[in-house]
Write a structure and sequence with these properties.
heterodimer, A: alpha/beta, eight-stranded mixed beta sheet, 34% helix, B: mainly alpha, globular
Chain lengths: 586, 76
Amino acid sequence: MGISTRQFDAVVVGAGGSGLRAALQLAEANLRVAVLSKVFPTRSHTVAAQGGVSASLGNEEPDNWHWHMYDTVKGSDYLGDQDAIEFMCRKANEAVIELEHYGMPFDRLDNGKIYQRPFGGHTSNYGERAVKRACAAADRTGHAMLHTLYQRNVRANTQFFVEWMALDLIRNQAGDVLGVVAMEMETGEVCVMHAKATLLATGGAGRIYAASTNAFINTGDGLGMAARAGIALEDMEFWQFHPTGVAGAGVLITEGVRGEGGFLLNKNGERFMERYAPTVKDLASRDVVSRAMATEIKEGRGAGKDADHILLKLDHLGADVIDKRLPGIREIAIKFANVDPAKDPIPVVPTCHYQMGGIPTNMNGQVLAGHNGGAIVKGLYAAGECACVSVHGANRLGTNSLLDLLVFGKASGEQVVKDLASEALSHQDLPKDAADRSLARLARLDSAQSGEDVAEVGAEMRRTMQLHCGVFRFPDSLAEGVRKMQEVGKRAQQLYFKDKSKVFNTARVEALELENLVEVAMSTMVSANARQESRGAHDRSDFPDRNDAQWMKHTFWYKENNRLEYRPVNLKPLTVESFEPKARVY
Amino acid sequence: MGDMDRIRWQCRRGLLEMDLILQRFLAEDFDSLNTDERVLFKELLGEVDTVLLAWVMGQEAAPKRYDALIQRLQRR
């Protein structure tokens, strides 16, 4: 086939927290592991996680995994699978202590145990009162975790392919996955990575939104690869938003600003939260504030020339109070919003933060072959934000993202080790056309003499998602959004860039990334349009309530014809009683 | 040329804040760096994002050799 082939026991795509945790499991079992990453591993987006990782260690006060499980099920708005949630919460202590033994610099108590702090949604005794469950390394937990896991992988002889981008999965006639086709950015060389096991750990795809806290690398490459290979994407309508990101930039403005007396204004200078939440006003919960902001913008009262954002006013606090109580906020606003909040309001907008859905897997990281039953795709595994186990359901509990990647990174690695030892997996013969799909995509891009501009199509996709499928969703707008995304999808098949060089061609990489993002955006829009209820992060104006009778089910979106199928939520935990759905109030 | 393309790619970071700062720097300042400054810039890109951001936001002091570069990043 004219391109080189490299052989490994396992290929891991992505070197953030979940990829590194999984790779470690494989390398320590003396398997030949290749980890592909677009950027140097310690520059993965896991570095942005600040809050901590949850585990019911009970170092500060009584706690146990049942309570953590309850908080997670409730947080998920009862869409999370209770068997997977039980598994994760029970494994949490072991996962954290293991990391401690690897040298993770957790903050400590005077008695030497890991310090734990309270976090939103974490409670003791099934919602009775706040509990200290989050373990952290200052405000750099993700950073410390990445470094710890990377060092450990180096020691275990994991082989890293840095500045490599995976393009497509290789599947044979039987549907088994035999590795990936990948491109080395430095040379533009395309190579087949032939593996017995392939593990996707490519993180989230928050860059589908115009307003996103995600780094530029978060383009859902694993999700695009899965979708193109005929694998479903699960629960893609669920994205977590933060009310106040800087409009046009995405950088978060802490909720502490409103806590200290800052408030939101529409274009008429009206303090609109007084209408939506007369008592608590700007201190209402995240979803209430986000919904109010989205409604103001939707009804034409947004600020700015495009009426597309809200103003966060805090100049009345005075420069001294701002500097003292909200350290760093002026610098952030000046740098990323180009305004000094001591003089002018900060333009803000609800901003996408975390992807709850993803590639459907079971608790062992094995990718599900479809919405029916437990059949798996032989040879394919996924973990972390790109996967949907599902432990986050319709909304993720804070600090459960780092726990997810530790627990399911390890579990998926263990499953690969087991499958290789049992000889359930081997190096199957590569199909003759193994790399054809990727080569055809590249050939089209490289030969195109005209077509659609990558930046323009990307901007149109992000605008469409933000406007039609943002934090608060309106029926007419969703239907229009589906039509617009179909247009975007067509344009994305005609991408064109001028520079055809092979060496570190960022334009080519960005075109390939956009193709992945468009799959994710499409799955999100179509799934959201179909779900006629409000649950967790999916909030619709026409169906304001949760509808357990009809919608206690996971969405499975297939790329072909935008087909939607559903799978019931697993309400049965492994060993304990089920948590029956209740209204989610805090 | 190839080196420049590599640097451009390595300005893709784990933190959105650093993506934004480095994109602006690439667009507006990078061309005016002399050879020594470019070498130093490449070295700077090897630092971790959380640390880089703390330097640029003035929350922590960077090693002396980076002072001039950090000051230029602070204007971006």
